[in-house]
Amino acid sequence: MTAVYSSTALLFRKHAIPVTSAIRTMAVRLRLLPAAKCLFDHPVQIKIEGLPPNQEVTLKASLADETGELFYSLAYYKAEQNGELDLSQSPSLGGSFSGVEPMGLFWSLAPKTPFKRLMKKNVEQPFCIDIEVYKGLSDVTDQLLAKCTNERWFMKKGVTRIPVREGRIRATLFLPPGPGPFPGVIDLYGTAGGLIEYRASLLASHGFATLALAYFGFEDLPSTLEGFHLEYFEEAAYYLQKHPKVNKNGIGVVGISKGADLALSMASFLPGVKAAVSISGCSSNLSSFLHYKGLTIPPLLFSVQHIKFTDKGAIIFRDAIHNPCDMENKESIIPIERASGNFLFLAGEDDQNAPSPMFLNEAVKRLQEYGKQNFESYCYPGAGHLLEPPYSPVCHTSWHKVVGAALVWGGEGKAHSWAQQDAWQKIQTFLHKHLGYEMNRSRI
Fold this sequence. Notes:
alpha/beta, seven-stranded mixed sheet, 8 helices, 31% strand, globular
């Protein structure tokens, strides 16, 4: 279905212009294809019609998050001779990005307040992004030509959200529509703590029964990163494996940052984990002690004197983290060679928070030394630490509540955005390859 929006309606409300006059003076149409409502990780085509030939315009996108924080972007364009603009073909002449970037207005959204990060809290409601077309090339414009709103949802129709408070588990389970059973996945975020659901809800929208699992900083869970017991994650894995709507041939784990090395540990010690995705992760147990059945893996630490700061006071951690290959750090290395399942390693070459490309290479090297070929690895030029679902705003730097300071994550706009799209597809393909599809449907 095509969503069509006209600036005429805006004139009616604001100036009470008669219909015939409004149509004569302002027939600009802003269209979102295929529809104005979509999943957050789906692209939309933005088309504008009815402009004067070669008209210069400014496009603005904006949204307010659940705390009221404003994020915005803008780009300058010149209409074709026929008075049309198609952002899938027309290049931006400048602004938040330049060149042909069909979703540039989305991935370039930046916070009005420095160091804010866009993170969805209530996944049962969409982010609503207003798109406006103004006459002329300027970031200060007052002649609005057309406007529309893109509703970007995190749960496909029919996806079920189930809070889980069973035993020690603090989580939310997302089940795809249909009878199942579905491939099961545990989703882990990093040192931000709490219960983060948006990636899990999107994975469920693509056919995975996904458990968004909190492991500190939530309800009665530990409030700090001092140490973790793998038995907690084992309990969560057992819960998911035993669910009647989950395939019985093993589960997967997706983790980013600290969640990534926990995913590697789960795959190494828990036989039911058949696929592990490490996003910007460490090949060692990072920052915290990890305990499991009498075994303790010490943490890989960092040196304060090697921390760097930007001119705005944000922290660059990358060069402060110790090298896991040094003799005194070898005990922190996760024994991934024990795993019977498969690994997908993803990292960005511009990661300023951790040397994740080095960690990726060390993990691959270790598996190869043990004669293993159960892995895929991809390192993205220009990408930073926070490889999020597609079209997420590129977050270069943001405040970290646990650290109590702003952290530099890295990432160059276009390159990072492309990496997010590619990584998202690789994650789904990898999980389906090793966990299967919904049992009651084909791959088509």
